[in-house]
Design goal:
The protein is an alpha/beta fold and 483 residues long. The chain contains 14 helices and 17 strands. Among the domains are: 6-72 and 146-215, P-loop containing nucleotide triphosphate hydrolases (Rossmann fold, 3-Layer(aba) Sandwich); 297-480, P-loop containing nucleotide triphosphate hydrolases (Rossmann fold, 3-Layer(aba) Sandwich), CATH 3.40.50. It has helices at residues 47-55, 89-94, 104-114, 130-142, 160-172, 184-188, 211-247, 253-270, 335-343, 374-380, 387-396, 413-427, 446-455, 467-470; strands at 6-16, 22-32, 36-41, 62-67, 73-76, 148-152, 176-180, 193-197, 204-208, 297-306, 309-319, 324-328, 350-352, 358-361, 431-435, 459-463, 477-480. The two termini are 46 Å apart.
Length: 483
């Protein structure tokens, strides 16, 4: 990484969530001033936990975190906390400061301009779209003008223009930035180094270069380690075979056999622990509700939001079995509002056929009960709770062991997304509604999810701002709310 004063140093830092959930094991790494770092790792590995340790929100079990005295840290979380949803824009920004700021309004205007958002300061947070809320989160970090900027999945919910705007901002930003993201193209535009949190060893590995450099580096290392282990395994087996041969001869040959066994044990110790790559979810199928006949969904009109006003527009669209619709439009035009109203049956101009089960993947996961365990949430949508079936589906989404009995609210955002997909598999919906299903997801899972959506045989509506993901899915019709 470029030379400069070290502003953060982790020395032998360990952290656990309870007795069976190790997150960090004697982690060592440092961050230098004015560098732009990517934090990588599997969903649930503990990347957001490291941000909380840097912020001082939680304390390590052991080890030392050295942070330059007086260093100001600003963070943009993945989602706006539920308790902040009723705040006005002004109160939302005021809350990030420990003391009352009397010139808050001009400061708000400056940071909203930086994130390309126009907003009345008295407007309530929950009335903004998911993409607009993502911009508000980013602006809440920028308004502090911090020495260190921590961004957790900042591209989630942002449209193409929003991502381009954020990328330019980070390229031009003169201070230190650490970003958690699964968006390779976005990361490569500004990253100078990578910190990789290995979910298996609970260690942080430090690399120079961008995301693609690191993936190539890791792949080369795995190949080299596998080759070395293969040669050692061959030599170990030869020594064991010789030891067995000489042991059967008896007499002094037994001493030779003993030496052969000892040699085999020495070689075993030389074997290296090959780094385990991030696990990918298993291929899955979202079964469609059986006996679907005729129109599943009819849309005759929909509302679009422009200049903060809703306007009703007419259309003629129906979805039958095995038809997939993509909703398009910029942040704030009303895509999430339309999906939500269709899902709960309150949309003017949209009617779901009687008896159709709706599977709704919400971008904020608010249709999951955060106080219930994963097991309770998955069991609730099954017609008949079959433990073996529930466990098998959950395991396919990397939800195993004690994780099944963990409360939804204690999961990472990525893990909540995996639970939401497992729930859809067990629900067997006739109409599938998906609002930004790539948010928070490890990039390795996306091709598997795309394949499952392509093969879904019910009616489907999809909203996604990730063109690469959409290009992998079979889409039969597109409804652009802007046109």
């Amino acid at each position: 990484m470029p030379r400069g004063e070290t502003i953060i140093r982790f020395e032998g830092v360990s952290f656990d969530f309870g007795p069976k959930k190790k997150i960090l094991d004697e982690v060592n790494f440092n961050v230098r001033k004015s560098t732009k770092i990517t934090f990588m790792g599997q969903n649930g590995a503990g990347k957001s936990t490291i941000f909380k340790l840097i912020m001082g929100e939680i304390k390590p079990e052991s080890g030392v975190i050295n942070i330059t005295k007086g260093l100001s840290v600003g963070t943009a979380r993945q989602v706006i906390p539920r308790e902040d949803m009723e705040l006005s824009v002004r109160d939302f920004f005021q809350k990030v400061f420990p003391k009352k700021v009397y010139d808050i309004d001009p400061r708000i205007d400056r940071v909203l301009e930086a994130v390309h958002l126009v907003a009345d300061h008295d407007k309530i947070i929950k009335t903004f779209s998911g993409g607009q809320q993502a911009r508000l989160l980013l602006a809440s970090a920028l308004i502090q003008d911090p020495d260190l900027l921590l961004l957790d999945e900042p591209t989630n919910n942002l449209d193409k223009a929003g991502i381009a705007h954020l990328t330019k901002f980070l390229v031009d930003y003169k201070k230190t930035v650490i970003v958690i993201s699964h968006d390779a193209e976005f990361l490569n535009a500004f990253t100078q180094g990578v910190l990789y949190l290995d979910v298996h060893t609970h260690k942080v590995e430090q690399y120079v270069g961008n995301y693609f450099d690191v993936v190539a580096d890791i792949s080369a290392r795995i190949e080299k380690e596998n080759r070395k282990n293969a040669l050692l395994a061959k030599e170990i087996q030869e020594n064991k075979d010789k030891a067995n041969f000489f042991a059967n001869k008896g007499g002094q040959m037994r001493m030779v056999a003993k030496r052969m066994r000892e040699k085999a044990e020495e070689l075993e110790e030389e074997k290296v622990d090959v780094r385990k790559e991030d696990k990918t979810i298993r291929s899955f199928v979202i079964p469609s509700q059986p006996d679907l006949i005729g129109d599943i969904l009819n849309i005759t009109s929909f509302a679009v939001i422009k200049n903060h006003k809703a306007t009703q527009r007419k259309t003629e669209m129906s979805l039958k079995k095995n038809q997939h619709l993509q909703l398009q439009g910029p942040n704030g035009i009303g895509k999430t509002t339309l999906l939500e109203s269709i899902a709960n049956g309150t949309a003017k101009g949209a009617e779901i056929a009687k008896g159709v089960r709706v599977g709704y993947y919400r971008q904020d996961f608010s249709n999951l009960d955060f106080d219930k365990t994963v097991h309770q949430e998955l069991g609730a949508v099954m017609e008949r709770l079959v433990e073996e079936n529930l466990r098998s589906v959950a395991a396919g989404f990397l939800i195993t062991g004690e994780l099944v009995h963990t409360k939804i609210g204690n999961l990472s955002e990525g893990q909540k997304g995996l639970v939401a997909f497992a729930r859809l598999v067990l629900l067997r919906p006739g109409l599938l509604i998906l609002d930004e299903p790539t948010n928070h997801m490890n990039f390795r899972h996306l091709p598997v999810i795309a394949e499952a959506l392509t093969n879904y045989e019910g009616a489907m509506i999809l909203v996604s701002h990730v063109p690469e993901f959409v290009s992998q899915i079979r889409i039969d019709e597109v409804l652009d709310l802007e046109k």
